[in-house]
User: What shape does this take?
Amino acid sequence: MKYRPRIYYTETQNGDSLHAIARFFDRSHGSIAGILVRTGGTHPPQRRRSRLALTLSKREQISRGVVAGQSIRSIAALLGRSPSTVSREVNRNGGHRRYRTSKADQAAWDRAHRPNRCKLAKNPVLARIVTKKLKQLWSTEQIAG
Assistant: This one.
């Protein structure tokens, strides 16, 4: 069996994805992940909004439509969005009487905050159960079931 030559990981690849770093070193992403975990990992990417999320200008149009007494469907048609999207936006941000663009935009940014805490970190009882099953050599599929 022919082995690849050892590569010494002295160069840093700031901002690259795990797959890009692995391609750079001609390795699988799994082998790179182990090294990154031992050395402190990588910085998470800077937060940015999804291209699918409502923008501040769209929220402003929603606000103007609500104040003008337009229906949800007519506002949605103007925005080119689904009526359910507009309805959820208005309802989760104060309803027809209290919808404000800046507050809605900030609330959406706060709700989208990532990363979320791991399920096992939030639930110590579940973490103990999973740990016990792993010590008993259960597979991850068996534990999930």
